[in-house]
Structures are given as C-alpha cells and as structure tokens.
Amino acid sequence: MPGSQEASLDEDAVFLPVKPSSPEFLYSELERHSMEKLLCEGPKAFYNSVGTELSGSFLSPDEVSEITSWVQDFHFTPLQKEENGGNVNPDEADLTSSYFPSYSDVPAPSLALGWPEAPWVRMENVAVYTNPPAEGEPSIREVIRRHLQKASQVLAIVTDRLTDSTIIGDLHDAASRGVPVYIILNQRTVEEKYTLHRLGHPNIQVRVLGGKSFCSSKGKMMVGELKDKFILVDLERVIHGSYLAWTDAHLHRHLITVITGSVVDSFDKEFRTLFAASAPVPNLLQYAVPHVEMTEQQNDFKDPSPPRHFHVTQEILNPPSPPMDTHLDWEAMGVITRESFPDSLTPGLILMKRRNNVIKSALQRIPQASKPRPRSFALDLSWRPLRERKGEEE
C-alpha cells in the first residue's frame, strides 16, 4: 500500500496541497470526479463536468472514445477468480468497488519451465538501432532475430501485440531446442485470438495482463492496457522497444535499445512482478489446432521454400472426332476404340466407316495375286481388329 493511502487511514493526518506545477502532482479529485461522469453517464456528462470544474479537457477525443468502449460493470478479474477457486459468493457479487484492494495470500505463480541464475559478471553496454536503419547498421528485425536464435537459457517477452510470423517462427525454434519461452501479452489484444493459435507449444508459456483498474462508486470500472515492451534474453541482455509486428519492421519509425549490464536486474524483477500479476491462458494448445482459416498474414508463416510445380497431363474426357482428310487408322493407333462408341457414333466416325466400307468392297474385287501389298507406312483403314486382318492374309 502506498504511503499516501496508508496515511489517509489516520483521521488526524494532514495533507499539504500539491500544486499542478509540482512534479509530485499526480492525483486530482476534479479529474477523478470527471472520470466518474464519463464511466457512469457518458461523454456528454464528462464534457459538461470538464467545462464547469476544469479549465480544459485532460483527455483527447480519441481517449474519450477509447475509455467509453472499455467501460464495464465491476467484476472479479481472472486472477481473482483463480485465487478464489473460480467461485464468487453472493455477497461478493454485489460488491461494486474496494477503495484499497487487498493483496492475495496465494503464492505467486511459478516459472514452471525453468528460470536460470543471473550471471555474476555482465559487460555494461548500450546499443541503439533505428528503423529505418542508419547507414551500415542492421535492420531492427535482424537484430531481434539474431538474439532470439542465439538464446540458450531463457526468453521472457512482455508486449502488447505479437503478430510477426517470422518472429513467432523463431520462438518456436527456440522452444523446440529446449529454451523456455515466457510471454506476457496485453489482455485486450489477446481477446482477438489471432496470436494465441500460433503460440501453442509445450515449451512456451503464455499469460495475459491488462493495465491498472479504475473503479467508480456506482459499480462501473475500466481496465487499461499493458504497454511494457521488452525481451529478456538469457538474463544477460534486454531489448527494449516496439518490434514484434510486421508493420513495426516495414512501416513505422521507431527505435530499440539493446542493454547489457546491471540494469538487466531491474527488468528481471519487473518481469517477475508482471508474471505474478498476470493470468494464465487456459488450454493454450487448443488454439494451435489448424482449424482456423488462414489469412494472408498467416500464410507468411508457411514453409518459405519455393513451391514445387507438378506437370500433370489433363485427361481428355470427350475427344474430338478424327479428321476426315487423313489416311490413318485411328483405332490401330490407339486414339479411338470401337468400344468407346457402342451405341451411338459421331457424324465424323459414321462418314469414316462408310468410306472404309467403300474401300473394302473395292479391294475385294481385285484378284488376290494382283492385290498390292500395303507399304510400311500405309495403314489399313478397316474397322476390324488387326488380328482378324492378319488371319485373312495368311
């Protein structure tokens, strides 16, 4: 409990006023009252309150719209439900808010996949990389991927979104080679379930966490966002910044900072604190079932090798009739068979049959001795099988 909250329990405590110009100025009762109006009565009541009590709005129009979409009835958080065994008694169901939330007696969740010991000696170093990269410097995505691929002890990630298929592939590779991977995602982003189905792995543990809560006296509340963005690599270095989405690598201007040294201990402690406050994602592996429709972005995570082209000869189910101006035995060549047309013949085949009958009758009138032998390149146009024709010649 902060010292100011503890001191407020004392009826004799005297608080000196803090001017807005003071660096210590943080809480404002007028701002709190305006927020109550926004949560309970909507934007119109908020702007009316700001106009009468404050000199100007302390929220932009986008922030007002965003907060309005976050408003909900007070309820227990997933972590509170987990601590209570998933049951809430009727007396607690009517609870609207608590001025000083109590700390849980339940022990913090364990890092079940393992957590290494911090190294005794670290080299102090800070490196800054920009997007687009400076001349001669690697891209931000390249820096991130090199650190992920070299990790050997642990990867701990805190981010509001994780959608880059290439980065997710590197995390799967690290988990497959035995590196524990812990990921804490923004709770509101995870509700879209776009990322969850791609993080299913026995060696990847995903938890979710939101921001701070604001509870009104009339049973309304809102939860902020998780804005921390950093990666712990083997407890030796920290990568701080935005970089885990495709747009971060290709569109947005930003920078990342790679830090080594004693300051890594502060990020180690912060990650453990966030991990203890986060809630688990139940049945994460069920999201890995490939029943989700593949989108254009998800196709980037497929096998990057070039596609194999198979040349398949298309079967002709209805071949055209053979041309009439050629002296070729199409049946003998295997193009057509008599069995292919048992009942009905095409007009072309009917004409061919009549022509063959005329030629056959003419050949029968020629004496056997003077009957010319067919040349090697000439083909008999008779419709009878070749075996019958050979028998007659013998």
UniProtKB/TrEMBL annotation:
<dbReference type="Pfam" id="PF07894">
    <property type="entry name" value="SACK1"/>
</dbReference>
<dbReference type="GO" id="GO:0019901">
    <property type="term" value="F:protein kinase binding"/>
</dbReference>
<dbReference type="InterPro" id="IPR050944">
    <property type="entry name" value="FAM83"/>
</dbReference>
<comment type="similarity">
    <text>Belongs to the FAM83 family.</text>
</comment>
<dbReference type="GO" id="GO:0007165">
    <property type="term" value="P:signal transduction"/>
</dbReference>
<feature type="domain" description="Scaffolding anchor of CK1">
    <location>
        <begin position="17"/>
        <end position="280"/>
    </location>
</feature>
<protein>
    <submittedName>
        <fullName>Family with sequence similarity 83 member E</fullName>
    </submittedName>
</protein>
<dbReference type="InterPro" id="IPR012461">
    <property type="entry name" value="SACK1"/>
</dbReference>
